[in-house]
Design goal:
The chain is α+β, with helices and mostly antiparallel strands and 226 residues long. The chain folds into two domains: 127 residues, no CATH class; 88 residues, no CATH class. Helix content is 50%, strand content 17%. It has eight helices and three strands, in the order H-H-H-H-H-H-H-E-E-E-H. It has a three-stranded antiparallel beta sheet with strand order 1-2-3. The two termini are 36 Å apart.
């Protein structure tokens, strides 16, 4: 049996049933928290607004993510396949949902009709950004002091005892980057920099930010909104 909400393939994707069941187990307050994330355009940003919404709700982060994925897909499908809410209602009925559950989902989608097109465009933006190079999840910068001794522990036996002499401390910067590819694989990469190298890096970032601002000004008519 083919369903309109799944497009040409016509069959549910792997986690759809589990996500649907999870969403229907949420209480009204939890559903409102998810709706608020979409209305504030926080879900696709994965930033502080979303973290605050999750923290303020009684829903666990993994539940929030799974339920929001379902909502995002339904909003995307609604727009992508030029459906009516009645089409989604019919498919949910064919999937074995109870009428009361279908009503809950349809009313929920109705409250998010204003952001449907934004979610649809964000889907393509996200896919095309993730297709190819990894994206940066987080960056940590740490200031450290490296101890400098007058020798190394693996020195030859006949070497002097300078390895016991603490010559002083050398300040260094450690930058850690966490990234993910479009298959969900995460990678951690760390670099160390001297104070001079860090200053050069800071200057490069500042100049790149200035270039980005100039580019955005030039392409303003073509920028995606939301």
């Amino acid at each position: 049996m083919e369903y309109k909400i799944f497009g040409p393939r016509g069959t549910p994707y792997g986690r759809f049933d589990d996500q649907l069941k999870m969403f229907l187990k949420l209480d009204l307050a939890q559903q409102r928290a998810i709706a608020e994330a979409f209305l504030q355009n926080a879900f696709d940003n994965f930033g502080r607004p979303l973290q605050q919404l999750v923290a303020a709700s009684s829903i666990l982060p993994e539940q929030f993510s799974e339920a929001a994925d379902l909502v995002r897909y339904l909003l995307y499908s609604w727009r992508e396949y030029d459906l009516h809410l009645s089409d989604i209602e019919e498919d949910l009925l064919l999937l074995g949902c109870h009428e009361s559950d279908i009503k809950t989902i349809i009313e929920f989608l109705e409250t998010l009709s204003s952001v449907r097109d934004g979610v649809w465009s964000k889907n393509y933006e996200r896919v095309q950004q993730l297709d190819g190079l990894p994206t940066m999840d987080n960056i940590n910068i740490l200031c450290d002091a490296r101890a400098v001794f007058g020798g190394f522990p693996d020195a030859a036996e006949q070497a002097g005892r300078g390895y016991k002499t603490l010559l002083g401390l050398k300040p260094i910067i450690i930058m850690e980057i966490l990234s993910s590819d479009n298959y969900g694989r995460r990678q951690r990469t760390a670099f160390q920099m001297s104070e001079k190298e860090f200053e050069s890096f800071r200057r490069i970032i500042t100049r790149a930010q200035e270039q980005l601002a100039i580019m955005k000004e030039r392409i303003e008519p073509f920028l995606l909104r939301g």
